[in-house]
Amino acid sequence: MKKNKVVIVGAGPASLSAAKILSRHVEVLLIGRQYRPEKPCGGGLTQRCIRMLRKVFPDYVHLIESEIRNVLTIYRRGTYVLSSNEPLMYTVKREVFDKEFLKNIVDTCGVEYIPENVTKVEKKNRKYEITTDRGTRVETEIIIAGDGVTSRVRKCIENIRYRNLPLALRTYCSTRSMGQIDIAVLDFSKNIEYGYYWIFPLRNTLNIGVGSFRPCRELKNNLEKYVRTLGLERTHSIDGHNLPEKIRTLISEDGKILYIGDAAGLIDYTLGEGITYAVTSGIMAAIAYLKNRKNPGTIYVELMKDIVNDLKLTRKIAIHVPYRIDRILDMVIRRTITTGKYSIKILRGQETYHKAIKKLLDPRKTIETLLKP
Question: Is residue 253 part of a domain?
Fold first, then answer.
C-alpha cells in the first residue's frame, strides 16, 4: 500500500492546478483517468480564466483555436451584442487542452500519476484508504477531490446518490466555407427550459451545443434540430456530460477532504462556464493545504467564501432572468449590461456578479438609464 501526505483524485483542470502548486513543496500523488470520451463542453476560456491559468499552465497559448471579440446573446425579446477590441474569450478543444495540461504536469512537476479510477474511499481511524479499479490501494491523511460532477470520493464519504442531473451536449460542424469567425453565440430564444444553445468557433469548425439546468429527455433531438435549422451538418457525434445541479459543501466533516471544481458544483451558472473555478479552486485548495497541512478545510472555505457566494448568485440569475424578463428589466439589461460596462469586467475577472448587480440596480442609476432615449 502506498502512503502519501496528499492525494489528488481526478485528472482535469481542477486537480492539475492543485498538483502544480503543491508539487513545488510536497510529494503529490495524482489518481484518475481523464474523461472517456473527452468532456464535451464549449471550450471557452474567458479572460478571468486566463489570469488564473497562467499560474499553473502558461504553455496553453499554442492550444488556442480562436479569439472571440464579439458575443451575440439571443433572448426571446431581442438580441444583444457584446463587443471588444481585445479578445473577450478564447476557444480550445477540451480533449486536446486537458491531455496537454496533464502531460505538462506529469512531465515537468515530478508528480506521480496513476491513471486509474477511484472506486472506493474509506475512513480508517484518522486516515483515508483509497482503492482503484485495478486494485491499487493508497493511504493518506488529506484528499483533494477533483473527480467531477459525480464525484466518487463524495459518494463514498457522504453516501449520496446522483439522480436527474442537468445535462450538456455538444457536437462539431464544419465552417470551411465561412472563413475565420470571431463571434460566439448564446441562444436563449428556443424552447429549452432553464438552458440555452451555444455556438463557439474553432479552426474551420463550430462547437455547437446545448445545456439545461433541468433534466430534459429531448435535449439530443433539440440539438439535432438546431443544427439543421442553422443549415449545417455535423462532422462529429453528439457527446454529453452532466452539469452540477447546485453548489455542494467544499469540505468533509473532518476538514481533510477538499472538493474542487465540478465535484463542488463550482461553475458560473449563467454561462455554464466552469474551468475558471476549476483552476481557481484547485489553486486555493493547494494554498490551504500549505498553510495548514493537518486541517486545511477551514482555510479553504474561507479562501473560497466570496467566490462561492458569487456563484450562488449566478445560479439564481440563470434560473430566473433569461426566461422572465419584463419590459423594465429588459431595458436595463440592454442599456447597462450588454453595452459592455459590466459584462466585460466580469469576463475579465475585474468585477463580481454581486458588485455588478448592486451597481446595476442602484435606484438613481437605474432611473437615469431608463430615462435615456
Answer: yes
**Mind listing the pLDDT tens digit for each residue in 264-315?**
999 988 778 899 999 999 999 999 999 999 899 999 999 999 999 999 988 8
245 close to 165: Cβ distance less than 8 angstroms: yes
> What's the pLDDT tens digit per position in 45-93?
988 899 999 999 999 999 999 999 988 888 777 777 888 888 889 999 9
Any idea what the CATH number is for the domain that residue 301 is in? 3.50.50.60
* 350 pLDDT above the threshold of 80: no
Strands 28-31 and 127-132, by their bridges, are unpaired
Taking the whole predicted model, whether its pTM rises above 0.90 is answered as no
Residue 321 lies in a domain: no
Distance CA 85, CA 47 (A): 13
Q: Which neighbouring-strand residues pair with 9?
A: 31, 145
DSSP 251: B
In single-letter form, the type of residue at position 347 comes to L
Cα–Cα nearest to 7, from 147, 102, 133, 125: 147
SS (H, E, C) 81-130: EEECCCCCEEECCHHHHHHHHHHHHHHHHCCEEECCCEEEEEEECCEEEE
Written as one string, the DSSP assignment of 155-173 is HHHH-----S--EEEEEEE
Give the number of domains in the chain.
2
Check pLDDT > 50 for residue 336.
no
Distance from C-alpha of 291 to C-alpha of 284, rounded to nearest angstrom: 10
Residues 6+ apart with CB under 8 A from 161: 155
The domain boundary, picked from 316, 334, 352, lies at 316
Residue type, 6: V
Spatial separation of the C-alpha atoms in residues 266 and 277, rounded to whole Å: 6
- The predicted pLDDT at position 327 comes to 45
Note down the domain range covering 21. Answer: 2-63+92-162+245-316
